[in-house]
Amino acid sequence: MTRDGDRDLPPAEAIARLRLARTEGIGPLTFGRLLERHGTATAALAALPRLAARRGAPFALHPESEARREMEALHRMGARLLFAGLPPYPPLLAMQEDAPPVLALLGDPTTLSLRAVALVGARNASAAGRRIAEDLGESLAAAGLAVVSGLARGIDAAAHLGALRKGRTIACIAGGLDEPYPPEHARLQARIADEGGAVLAEAPLGTAPLARHFPRRNRIVAALSLGVVVVEAAPRSGSLITARLALEAGRELFAVPGSPLDPRARGANDLIRQGAHLTESAEDVLAHLPEAPRPARLFTPPPAWESADAAEELVPSVPSTPETSSQVLDLIGGSPIAVDEVMRRCHLSPSAIQAILLDLELAGRVELLPGNRVALTGRDQNGR
């Protein structure tokens, strides 16, 4: 059995979940729907080749050998995998509809159960901004909170360093656990893991921290936390994206005011004007921080992990033809549309729509979004 927190996951199912999560075209929402429909990742993997064959396009599952190598490499470096819906996967993150199905963890898993606050801000932070972030990190950690940030230069690093003086911190990185970014923060990453903190990565080992990975990293930072504190942020910065994601996730938003003469303060000042809590000390955060909501389990494992008959019931008997797929595509644009609206206008059953959307996502033509919405991928927008 593979031990993951308080639950035992059979080794075959752990490998199957990793393979499913790493298969191109399977996003978090599709992963969840496949698991809900088929009960286990093992059964979902058995179904996918037939699902893909219906659309007549090439489809490749993530190889089992690569999944095993990844798991073994993580174990060698003292890391582990966390599976959504099973402890010690972060409970607040698990409540998000698009929570990553699999995370890699380096460090202490008990840190993930602490109430947490995120501190984010400018990479080119001022000396005063770094000092404020460090002081906030130290005081919030001393109050028993885990301080969450992204291991970047500037405000992120200051927040981690301050938290380490009095408690625990969580670093969310955009690449694999073996690709700390920036490279000079490799020692800081190791220190966080060694001193009771946690380092989380959604990406596989060997994944470089490319620009397209940072929005997902920012979403995880926001979702892990009860609130997000913006210390310094220029307009249109990544920190403001994290602030928006925090609001979308129902989190409290805090901002440290700055000089109107400093462009790095404009983003935080704007947030305060829009209703963020003005923050000058940890007391301002603690006064408005809510209690953690009740964690929601994304996936409930069936009584028996594996069923000999499961693979026989996997392919739904619903219409998914080139004609119905084209009909659905014609209704979907680059802007997200509710799946219920697609269903209403196509006059197809829910099971038919879900089967068609699964086929289209596997083909890379649509993207399933939180809130039961769907949109064309960039490739399909250009091609239609």
TrEMBL record:
InterPro entries: DprA, DprA_WH, DrpA_SLOG, WH-like_DNA-bd_sf. Belongs to the DprA/Smf family. One of its GO terms (biological process) is DNA-mediated transformation. Residues 85-289 form the Smf/DprA SLOG domain. Residues 316-372 form the DprA winged helix domain. It comes from Roseicella aerolata. Pfam families: DNA_processg_A, DprA_N, WHD_DprA. This is DNA-processing protein DprA.
